[in-house]
Amino acid sequence: MPIDDDGRLRELLDTTTTIAVVGCSSTPGKDAHDIPKYLLDAGYDVIPVNPFAEEIFDRKAYDSLADVPDKIDVVNVFRPSDEVPEIVDAALDHEDEPAIWLQLGITHDDAVARAEDAGRRVVQDHCLKVEHQRLLA
């Protein structure tokens, strides 16, 4: 089962340092921009993953998770639900074994089950900003 209780959500947020944001947007006003910006301002190291941008927040944007050389604690997904299986595969291939966080409205039960079977922590259909503000801010 995906993480949805406050204690486990708080523990994940508390132990996270680096968040790779798949689908991070360079357009202010979009959730995929404003939420990662909030996370950056909250002290997290945010790594933008967007093949159509060179930089976001004055940080290098990577084309894919496979291209990110830095340690990743959480993969935060801002892509449509039908793209989740491919993103989960990339997260499962990442050597850091990051947790996977699907933003509010993004779900894929089969991909989530595969990630959990591989021992990954997964949050589905929750906004990272909302949970951070509610539990830690």
Elements, N to C (H/E):
HEHEEEEHEHEH
- Residue share in helix: 25-40%
CATH architecture classification: 3-Layer(aba) Sandwich
- Give the strand content: 15-25%
Q: Averaging pLDDT over every residue, what do you get?
A: 97
Morphology call = globular
Structural class: alpha/beta
Give the domain tally: 1
CATH class: Alpha Beta
| Strands ordered across the widest β-sheet | 2-1-5-6-7
The Rg value, from CA coordinates, equals 13 Å
Q: State the fourth-level CATH superfamily.
A: NAD(P)-binding Rossmann-like Domain
Question: Would you mind describing this structure in some detail?
Answer:
There is one protein chain. The model has no long low-confidence stretch (mean pLDDT 97). This protein has 137 residues and is α/β, with parallel strands linked by helices. The chain starts with 5 loop residues before the first helix and ends with a helix. It is globular, with a radius of gyration of 13 Å. The chain has a single domain (6-135), classed as NAD(P)-binding Rossmann-like Domain (Rossmann fold), CATH 3.40.50. Helix content is 35%, strand content 18%. It contains five helices and seven strands, in the order H-E-H-E-E-E-E-H-E-H-E-H.
